[in-house]
Specification:
By secondary structure, the chain is of the alpha/beta class. It is built from 16 helices and 29 strands. The structure holds calcium ion.
Length: 658
């Protein structure tokens, strides 16, 4: 049934009057477990017990069904089962006159069996890895201190070159291993040890809640990014070593987070509350049909996300669900931040409520929160203020959004393969000017709201985009192109020195390729995986990123979360037709007083007349076309000619303290 017109008359926002503020789901105690399901419109609800997560397992047994009792004021159905129910699998059997009896998992389930089909009662204490009590969040003074590397669990260690043991390849546990290239002694570090050397301090991990598109019971090759949530409050089973035992995935996910924290790396969870894997027949739909989603006037499902069903964050019980879910992950899994998929489909009030809830945790205001603030059509109440770029001024400085302007300015339009940007031909210069100022003249209130990037999981990798736009007829993605590497270095120099929060997809720094695939969400693992051999093949590029990261960490004005650096010290060269140049003042913070950044996107040298802008004396270079870091690599004065397709970053002489 895909048309809900007849149901909506008694559902949707009208059910908000039954708002229930208490705990829902299976509330576990050693002596008893209470089951609570909110469903004001159900005519009957029962809870059903099983010994296993599916019928195809050893020891599978049906353990009975129990009537739940409804509270007429709140619409909450409850049942208290005596005894220690830890490890018992359960479902609800919900009756709505329009749909009859339907069996569903618990939207609040904290554990589940294989494929998340049956929820599980869990004693969370049993899922803590050794030393979990000592595990601490990795938080930053300001969002602009984060340097984010976006990775998918399977991609990270699918390849043998990762050096990860076979049993942990593609799993959460891969993050716990100390590895070298191909597992060879003395070879360069890979995986988490590599990330420490690279210098990034934050990973954003693509969906690792339970998603529906991969069959956890199968050992066949399957791949999906996982933007298809089935159970929001428990980890994905295919990333665990045993998807059948509900406890294993929880413990192993915690092991991953613990290992990253131990390496000094913050963990941001990619959350997808804007749509679900299933529409008709999802846990939300079965629990309260017509309530948790948005529908068009004609009763069809609103589809702003393009995934078939937009959830309704403006409905009180879904807003509560989002807040509860975020807080659960933050507390139980010690997460350091959240990235909201299609944040523009949520209303500002919900995002504000989540921010306020996180702020109540110790140092909670330092937890990262940002999202895709695209402006999208969705069927919510007219007048609802949505969390898109136009409305970022409604949100505090510690809620950020991806900056599509700098992405497209640096390397051309994302959706047009042939489109070029600044690094390919010196074009889009004004957009780069806007981007290095964190788009603060446009939608971002402060640099801490702007997440700057050239590549993410969506679209082509940086290397592929540069190859296809420059060598249109014959991109040869598998080959090393010196001209492309040079452009890649320039792009990185701009991104990592811009005001805002720098972000990159995993492997951008090793010229990662997906052989031109622009939407690899369900491509073969071999397309998506990180080929760790590239840290040797593209060593110069990796070193360049390493140097830029070091530079960023050593010059505080790059990381200013306020407008100060932009308004007081940032002076732009507007007179050079092919280059972008600006100064940054650092008197209050860093060890260098003034920095000069010159970027040339054209093929010809671009000359900048320093004297004409009252910039006297000699300047020491720290970054040029080939090298980047905090070491002196040359000196310049008066008129500086920057070679084609390159960056030159300098500091005022005599101020350098090696
Ligand atoms: Ca799953």
């Amino acid at each position: 049934m895909n048309n809900y017109k007849h149901i909506l008359e008694n559902s949707g926002i009208k059910l908000d009057k039954f708002y229930f503020d208490g705990e829902l789901g299976a509330i576990y105690n050693k002596g008893c477990t209470e089951f609570r399901l909110w469903s004001p419109t159900a005519t009957d609800v029962k809870v059903k017990f099983y010994s296993t997560g599916s019928d195809n397992e050893l020891g599978a047994k049906y353990l009975g069904i129990h009537q739940m009792i409804k509270n007429q004021d709140t619409g909450v159905w409850s049942y208290i089962a005596a005894g220690d129910l830890c490890g018992i699998y359960y479902t609800y059997v919900v009756t709505h006159p329009e749909f009859g009896q339907r069996e569903t998992g618990d939207i609040y389930a904290k554990a589940a069996g294989v494929n998340g089909d049956r929820s599980m009662v869990v004693n969370l204490h049993d899922t803590n890895p050794e030393g979990w009590e000592e595990d601490k969040r990795v938080l930053f003074e300001h969002p602009t201190d984060a340097i984010i590397w976006e990775v998918q669990v399977r991609d990270f260690s699918y390849c043998e070159s990762s050096g990860v043991s076979e049993k942990h390849r593609g799993k959460f546990m891969a993050f716990t291993e100390h590895t070298t290239l191909g597992g060879k002694e003395g070879a360069p570090a890979t995986c988490v040890d590599y990330l420490k050397e690279l210098g990034i301090n934050c990973v954003q991990i693509n969906p690792f809640y339970d998603f529906g598109s991969v069959d956890e019971a199968s050992t066949e090759e399957q791949y999906n990014w996982g933007y298809d949530p089935k159970n929001y409050n428990l980890p994905e089973g295919s990333f665990s070593t045993n998807p059948f035992d509900g406890k294993v995935r929880i413990r192993e996910c915690k092991e991953m987070i613990k290992a990253l924290h131990k390496a000094g790396i913050a963990v941001v969870m990619d959350v997808v509350y804007n749509h679900t894997y299933a529409s008709h027949g999802s846990w939300f739909d079965i629990s309260v049909p017509g309530y948790y989603y948005r529908y068009n006037q004609d009763g069809t499902w609103s589809n702003g996300s393009g995934c078939g069903n937009d959830t309704a964050s403006e409905h009180k019980m879904y807003r509560k669900f989002m807040i509860d879910s975020i807080m659960y992950w933050a507390k139980e899994y010690h997460l350091d931040g959240f990235r909201f998929d299609l944040m523009g489909l949520h209303d500002v009030e919900t995002i504000m409520a989540i921010r306020a809830a996180l702020n109540t945790l110790p140092n909670g205001e330092k937890m990262l929160m940002y999202g895709e603030a695209w402006d999208m059509f969705t069927a919510c109440q007219p007048g609802t203020i949505m969390a898109n770029q136009h409305n970022m001024h409604h949100l505090p400085d510690n809620v950020g959004a991806f900056c599509d302007n700098i992405r497209d300015a640096i390397k051309g339009n994302e959706f047009d393969a042939g489109s070029c940007g600044f690094v390919q031909n010196g074009s889009k210069r004004n957009q780069v000017f806007r981007g290095v100022r964190a788009d603060t003249d446009f939608w971002a209130r402060t640099p801490s709201q702007a997440v700057n990037y050239c590549s993410c999981h969506d679209g082509r990798t940086m290397y592929d985009k540069l190859c296809v736009s420059v060598h249109h007829q014959n991109p040869q993605y598998e080959k090393r192109h010196e001209d492309i590497i040079r452009m890649n270095k320039l792009a990185a120099a701009i991104n990592l020195t811009s005001q805002g929060i720098p972000f990159m997809v995993a492997g951008e720094e090793m010229a990662r390729t997906k052989l031109g695939e622009h939407n690899s969400y369900k491509s073969h693992s071999k397309i998506n995986r990180i080929d760790w051999n590239r840290i040797e093949e593209y060593k110069d590029l990796v070193e360049y990123y390493k140097g830029l990261i070091k530079l960023r960490k050593n010059f505080a004005p790059f990381r200013d979360h306020t407008h100060d650096t932009i308004y007081k010290g940032m002076w732009l060269f507007t007179d050079n037709p092919c280059g972008v140049g600006f100064t940054l003042e650092g008197d209050a913070y860093g060890k260098w007083r003034k920095m000069l950044l010159l970027f040339n996107g054209s093929k010809e040298p671009a000359c900048f007349d320093l004297a004409a802008h009252d910039l006297k004396g000699w300047w020491d270079a720290l970054v040029n076309a080939e090298e980047a870091g905090i070491e002196f690599i040359g000196e310049y004065s008066r008129t500086i000619c920057v070679p084609g397709t390159s960056a030159l970053i300098l500091v005022e002489q005599d101020e350098i303290t090696p």
